[in-house]
User: Fold these one by one.
Assistant:
Number 1:
Amino acid sequence: MLSEPLPYHWKIRDYFKGQSGIWSFFSATRKKEEQLSSFKSDLLKNTYQFQPGSDLLLYEKINIIREKMGLGHLSVTAYQAAHSSELNASIVCLQGEAHMVFSGGVLQLLDEQELSALIAHELAHIKFYSLLEGDLEITDRIITALAGSPDSGASHYETARLFRLYKEIHCDREAYGVLGEEGPIITMLLKLATGLEVVQSSSLTHPENFIRTRALHLWHEERDAAGPAIAQMIEGIMELDRLDVLAQAVLSGMTRELLTGYLYPEWFRTPVVLALAHQYFPDLEVGTGAGAIFPDGLTTFLTGAHQSVREYFAYVLLDLALADPDLEDVPLGHALSLAETLGLTPVLEPIVKKEMTYSDKQWERVKLNIPRQS
């Protein structure tokens, strides 16, 4: 069996474990029990419990899969949600016992192999939370809480979305390990997404289930070699309005590098300009290092970046260039020079024209008279 988290899970675990305050808060047993108590209350009020004595076939299937997955020690109770038509299943572990809830007509819709795939997938969630000595369970609760808080940013929501999607992909692979084939897992996903008794891949339009089926097929064909293709399909190129906490940290680091080089000339470091720069990074240090020479990584990053990210960096250049009117047009010339170095000229010039309301002809005249100084 797999029992190995995916690379994204490691990185998010490491990111939050590096924040000792939040990690200590959520790793406390008391906090975990508080978060699970509401689920237990809803479970008892809104479900019908299947009985081992009367629902023999369901529990026999659960027990067989449980043993195959190395979870023979785990007690599993199955339920039917009473007030939900959504085709779905969920699982939670409370006080060492697993509670698996089916909703809608899942048990009637799926055939034997598809139901085995679903049960294995749900039990894989229990295994997932035990990985890295329970760190992934703590990580999941942290990002779920942050994503649900009105005080959190879009990056926390995006992090939770990606973490959960990678978790589902991991559990699909665990189910594959039980069944030894991809077919029942894919048709299970198709049926849950469409509600159809007979399905074809072309009928799948739900984006997440499409990604999961595609990821499973790629992994079935190529195993670990499929990792980069799957990551590209899920994460794509970094976009400014879809940053997770990892991408946000990368963007922050690149911005710091840009400002350090941009503000290297002593003439540029007036109190007004530095005050604005310190709004970006209060601890920013300038005037040290190798001058306005940027690491190859920054140039490469910007060359392959999404348009929204390139525009963001162009706006940073313009923001500081216009900060101190006493410097007149000299900072703008400096910004244009750096834009050439960083490959941002095609982005910066349209932004300058737009923000300063220059026509094309006006801009060409102005540009000829802007002093260039390093």
Number 2:
Amino acid sequence: MSAFLIFIVLIVLVGFFFAGMYNSLIKLRNRVKNAWSQIDVQLKRRHDLIPNLIETVKGYMTHERDTLENITKARAGAMGASSVAEKAKAESALSGALGKFNLVVENYPDLKANQNFLALQEELTSTENKISFARQSYNDQVLFYNNKIEMFPSNIMANMFNFKQEEFFEVENEAEREAPKVKFN
């Protein structure tokens, strides 16, 4: 009878082990989703700031229509992207368009003194920093999650329950790896 009891205890312990492993995978997957939602919040904030920025500078930059249209197109592409890879590519294009815009703004001293523009510039700088931190947090969570589903013995549980690797949010072009410089002082 004691051998049967030991067998039952071992079965229960193995069950708890696998339940803990499964719950750990669920927790990590949910952390990845939460980290992605933080990026989405900051990207939406960035997308919402851009029309205000363009409206503020339109009167000053009458000869820079292409620059403003490129920003608008890049923003639309970024808002329409769905997967992590698509969003990373679209956001890189938007960062590039904003970087070119910032270079053009240097030619307009009256614009650089405009209070509305300065406030929007500060908001955009703050948002770019928040995006950077959110992207780092997301990539950290993806790393933990991907490690867990690849390492033994949790990889067995991950395969059984169809846990899939998540994509990192990476900037493709080396030149786009830096946030656009938005300081005009």
Number 3:
Amino acid sequence: MTAIGIVKTLLELNRAQWLPTEELRRRSEARRLRLLRHAVQNVPFYRGLDINHLPVMDKSAYRNHPPEAFAASNLPAQRRMEKATSGSTGVPFRFEVDRAALPVAFASQLSYDSWIGLRPFDRCLRIAVPPPPGSGGLRMLPWLQRVHDRFTQDRISIWDIDAGRAEDIWRRIEACRPEFVFGYTSTLATMADLLLRRGLRLSRSLRGVIATAETLSPPRRRLIEQYFQAPITNRYGLREFGWFSAQSCAASPERFHVNTELAVCEILRPDGSLAEDGETGRIVLTDLWNYARPFIRYDTGDLAARPEGSCSCGRGFPLLGPIDGRTDECLTTPANRVIRPGSLAYYLFVYNRHTDDVRHYQIVREGNRRVTLLVVPGDAWNESAAARLRDEMSKLLGPGVEAGVRTVAEIPPERSGKRPIIKTLEEVH
């Protein structure tokens, strides 16, 4: 796609966001049917299947088949660009994106930026884990995006953040004077906490903060807002797709608009049926642009509510969320109650008002019988707060679960750079 093609795609995405929801649904359905017909004709795994009854697939299901089972036979191998997920969910996964879709991904990034007043040549500081060796970095992107990113983005690659690294980032922000900062939710929250404690405030206000990759829990949101003094935009996407499938807006900061020009989103119950309005289920996505190695009805492992109504911002893109963590982050009690990360965060920090007591936290589960809440103490922390948290955890989890609270100096990240809210003991070591 040429530069003119990228600009046309950007203009069309910006126009589409204001179309009526029903018209957007028709456009999305037409794209979906084209993709499915292509798959059943040219992709070995789907060849001959009924397009109305294609299976839901997760990472494990893809890994159970050879990679060539999902490669379109009518497209050249050069169309496929190999990538990999971090394995932060416990299932490392190699996959391929369609090179022909990379310009669309760039146009969608610019379109999302425009929602929050970020103009094409405003500066943005990206805080992220280093790209994997051999990934190609900027060289693999469309030339126009390479030029854009070199002139507009200052990148900091880190695996973990401590007081020294936080101060280095503060100096970089002061020096490059970005309009926006972009990063993992927990990294931004940890950085904000460390800089607040050191009294290192920004001399110039940002226009916004873009958080991604992890649940924006109440404590994390509070720390980011307290330090940056700027509105937070939350983006949701999958590395497997190569772009963000949804973004929050100022009118719905706790929810997301699904970009139906890029993906089809289903919210499914455990039995595979569609969830009703207000019901939480698994997020299942279909990438509408990857023809070389399609992702069709892909179980993301994430959970979200299917919200009721429309957004007052006027965008026709349907709402999603709030996103309530991952299926493998959920706690299951002996009574078979499933407690999601978002529900846990609301219970502890909104309903029971522990925001001032806790700076950061993580639940460590040992089977179904023992759960420990790791806490990086806040300014109001004391033994009374610890006792209340222990009691409230016990009430939430019910009989048969031993609940504990332990203070720690920090919550270390996983290899991916993420800090899951709920994890098993095996993942800690």
